Amino acid sequence: MMGFLYLLTLLAFGLSIWAQFKVKGNFNRWSEVPASSGMTGAQAARTLLDRQGLYDVPVEPIAGRLTDHYDPISRVVRLSEPVYYGTSIAALSVACHEVGHSIQHKVHYPMLVLRHRMFPVVNFASGVAPFLLMGGFLLHALNLIGLGIILFSAAVAFQLVTLPVEFNASSRAKRLMVAEGFIGNAEERGVNKVLGAAALTYVAAALVSVFELIRYIWMFTASSQSEE
């Protein structure tokens, strides 16, 4: 059983690495394909925000590559420079995806609300759980292992909740990009490639965590039985 769990974790980890390559590859490929609208990522984001009544949400450039994100605390859409200034299909796709998160925030999308509420607990749990698990297995302390598993479960739950948040943001982005005329029908394939690869990274990360959690639970169960 343990060998099988290790294999599943290894496969999921391999999927995660492959997904990262897919994200970079698709972003680079579609960064060289200009969008027919000629808009920059910043212009597309600003236009969508304004048409959703989000006039008070600024769009800011940020250093790096693929560092794009929506900050729910400051309520700011931050776009990496290649996306902010870029006029490609990749740039518009990523920019509109981040605006999708801002729209989720505005409409109180349930899974996003849940994710925000979970974050303080998960931030603590993810930092403490590895030490509890390591110490528990080294000292053969079942109480530490059990507590570590509970905290690690919170981190896994957070990753699972993240999946519908990301998929929903991409779905909103695709729909709005077409509706607003940012892309033509023939350009939807590029948008799907860029956002689909990004979504795969979250799926892979969640799988790795789930298999790790199952492995810890199995080890805990085996240790409990050996002490009976």
TrEMBL record:
InterPro entries: Zn_peptidase_2. One of its GO terms (molecular function) is peptidase activity. It comes from the Bacteria. The chain crosses the membrane at residues 121-139, 145-167, 194-218. Keywords: Hydrolase, Membrane, Protease, Transmembrane, Transmembrane helix. One of its GO terms (biological process) is proteolysis. This is Putative membrane protease YugP.
